[in-house]
Amino acid sequence: MRFRQRTRSLRKTDTALFPTPQTAATVIDLLRIWLSRNFAETTELHAVVMDASAWGVLITGDSGVGKSELALELISARPRQGR
Questions:
Q1: Domain contains 83
Q2: 63 lies in a domain?
């Protein structure tokens, strides 16, 4: 199908055409990121993540309740390896 025929068909069906020098993969990736940022459901979570003796620890709580201080206490209180 020639370009003029294609654009005529697009107008008849009210279909958008966005020419771009980008590859299809790049455009799809950018559209996926934009759609997820603008339409995906989000949840806000206040937390601290730390490694405690090869265990992943997630401390959650409201803003300002002392999650970071607790994490620092846990790090300073744990036994030192190799001593």
A1: no
A2: yes
Q: Is residue 60 a part of any domain in this protein? A: yes
Pairing of strands 55-60, 47-52: antiparallel
**Segment 42-67, tens digit of pLDDT:** 888 999 999 877 888 999 999 999 99
Q: Give me the domain span that covers residue 52.
A: 47-77
Q: Would the pTM of this model clear 0.90, i.e. be above it? A: no
Tokens of 77: 């209180």
User: At residue 58, what are phi and psi to the nearest 5 degrees?
Assistant: -115, 120
Q: Where are the alpha helices (DSSP H) in 1-83?
A: 3-12, 24-39, 67-77
Joined together, the tokens standing for residue 48 give: 């601290």
